[in-house]
Amino acid sequence: MTPLQRMLIVWAMATGASALPAVAPIAPPAVAAKVAVARRLGVPAAVRELVRTSKIVDLPRSARTENWTVRVAGNNREAGSCAHAALCNCFKMQGRYDLAEWWAANHGGGAALKENTSCDSLEAGLKRAGLDYRIGNDEAFLEWTCRTRRGCVVPCVRGEYRCPDCGKTHKALHAINLVGLNAQYAWLIGVNDVEQIHRMARADFIADWKNAGGYALTPMVGTPQPPKPWIQAFPQATPPPAKE
Amino acid sequence: MRRICDTFKSPVFLYPFTASAVLSSALLASVLIGNANTERMAADADREQVQQQLFALQYRHSGARNQIAVFRESIRNLQQELAGAKQRQAAAPVAIESAPVLESRHVDLPEDGDKWFTILFLTRDWKNHADQANAVKLWYGKLPHSEWLVELKGQTNARVIYTDEPQFQQFRQKKDGTPLVSGVPTLLIERANGEVVYLESGKSLAHHPADLRKAVVLEMKRRCPNGQCLPLFPTPASKPTDGAIEEEKPQDEVPAVIHEAPPAAPAPADQKKSGPSPIVALVGLAAIFAAILVIGKGEVFASKVKKGLRG
Predict the structure, then answer these.
(1) Domains of chain A
(2) How many contacts does A have with B, using Cβ atoms within 8 A?
(3) Under an 8 A CB cutoff, do B99 and A229 touch?
(4) Would the pTM count as exceeding 0.90?
(5) Distance between CA B36 and CA A224 in Å, rounded?
(6) Complex prediction ipTM
(7) Spatial distance between the Cα atoms of A214 and A171, rounded to a whole number of angstroms
């Protein structure tokens, strides 16, 4: 055999080896993986999107509570009620529209959030009303509230302000609703802008949340909001031929 | 005899005897003293052990006493809290009255994210409509053979949605040109991912609760064949009957839509992109081997020609 023949045979064997997977039977795990991928691709994109977003508590636009302002007693200024509005959204997510109306009518003002503490006034109000609630200060709690479609009230930092009483500079805190959380993103309803659900990178949200105190509150007053419904169409079974 | 005595009195015999007697007595004395010491040490050890046990008992007793004190303190705090709550309730009767009172407070976080939803759609004036009032009776298990729905509600997130609530809008959205909830009363069962498992509406919803149960069971089996369904099966009835829903099955993390969707048929364009078919590969290999043979023969012919020229 000449060197040229030898070289050509080696090249042919290499080419054959590369083409082997197309000819030879594939190992069972590889088959299973391919079938799984094919099935996954077989799911319509609309359904995939529905399943993906099924853990986002999509409170209808008309149900979202907007922030309102109240005049603080003994002080010539108006204060927002972001924490109360966010809590009302939580009530509505759990189907308690009546409770949300009652809360909005009986609560207000911006003293709900204190820097680096828990949401004291919200807690006090919930306790006074005899309502059950949960408070957490870690990401697992946030994930639980979203996983169970309850949503929660979370603080975030919105700049700084100089306190006229003590003269010190404090973080200006604001309350919003966390309605979805996955590995990449967080979905939020801002009570000052209720038109749409805002999406934010998870890392950014967590950093901001921790900077604002890192606590979350969710009431336990009703049934979690059901997800958007969709129907999986099944092929109609053909009836068996009638016996003669 | 006297000689014998003299023999014993002689220094040769007397000294070793005396020495051995002294040594043996000393040995005996040391053994006796050693035993006494050992007994004393054992007694000391026993005493020490008893003291330790006594100390441990005292410690436990004091710990228990501390615990009792803590419990008493917490009971006192709870009593104070209760008294404060009663005072607050007396001070603000309106606020307390209008707020619902929960039965209990739990410390745990319920993991109900995978629970199904059982929803009944009604209008606000359901009392004025006989069909809706019947549906409400069915909802609360007040009709014959309707206990299964109460059980199902217990195992799922049960909710009544009125048609004037904003929440209702998402159930009215058309899917494939068909309204999802077209009228009231409507019973809808959906999975945690939103897949509708059962939907029935109309005036006859509450007429035959037993038949309704059978229909629900059949539809559940169709939607979740062989247990390939997330989450666990809700069991609407405890009594096993024909076509009863199976008991709880191991949780399957794969979404049902993936299980249920048929495998995607590869498009022709994709097939071309995916690589040469086996026949093309075989033909190519055959052509390569033919080329090798031809080249080999050509080289042999050339060498023969060279030899011939030399010759």
Answers:
(1) 3-53 (no CATH), 61-219 (3.90.70.10)
(2) 173
(3) no
(4) no
(5) 81
(6) 0.71
(7) 13
